[in-house]
Structures are given as C-alpha cells and as structure tokens.
Amino acid sequence: MNKGLKTALATIVLAQFLKIPIKQLETGRWDWRLFFETGGMPSSHSAGVSALATFIALEREMRTIDFALAALFGLIVMYDAQGVRRQAGELALRLNELAEEVKKLEDDPQQAVYKKRQQQLRARLGHEPIEVVGGALLGIATGAVSH
C-alpha cells in the first residue's frame, strides 16, 4: 500500500477516534459507538480526502494531475458531507419527530403499524460546515506530517 493511501486511511481512523473525546467534552459521557458512526466533529471523510490531497501536493506538487484528481474528489466529498447527507439527516430527524407525535395522538399506540417500526431513522448522517472544516484542517495537518 502506498504512503498516500496509508496517510488517508490513518487520518480517517484518527478522525473517527477523535469524535469520542470531543463528544465527551460536550455531553460528559463516553460513547465508544461514535467510532463506527457517521456525522460529528471532525468529519472523517473530509479529513481523509484532505490528507490525501495535501500529501500529493507536497509529494508531487500542485500542478500534477494527481493533485487535481485528489482535490476535485475531496471537494465533492466535502460538499456531499455537508449538503446532501446533512439534509438527509435533518429529514430523518423530522420523520422521527412526526412518528412520536402520531404515537401521542393515537389512542392505542400498540397497533401493528408501531410494531413494524422498531427503531428510529438514523439522523446523524451528514455534517455541519464547521465539522467539514475541522476534518479538512485535520487532514491537511496529517498529510503534511506524513510527507
């Protein structure tokens, strides 16, 4: 495996791990499940693509097609993380709230329709812009250190 790929993958793992203590500072409790979840600070997707693009820029310079591909791929990933995936997460939140309201309005919440729905939709799919920026900065730092 080449060093650029190793750098990007290690940065993704680091970003996923960092979500745990950052969330602990916010909530006061440790949640190790965050390592396997999407969303949160920092964005591991942004960190990984930024680390790869930074490594390539330092290794081969910014005028190469390698860097152009990595940078364009990275911009698309970061746009998607804070755009489409974030909107899908917000929609999931609204649907979960609507389901709770329907339960409250029903006389008999034990109807078959509620038995089919055993878990709520995942609402943490995307990122706030600050989470994307945090991931990008982490990626730039790890890409530079790796080089």
UniProtKB/TrEMBL annotation:
Keywords: Coiled coil. Residues 81-108 form a coiled coil. PANTHER family: ACID PHOSPHATASE/VANADIUM-DEPENDENT HALOPEROXIDASE-RELATED PROTEIN, ACID PHOSPHATASE_VANADIUM-DEPENDENT HALOPEROXIDASE-RELATED PROTEIN. This is Membrane protein YuiD. It comes from Geobacillus subterraneus.
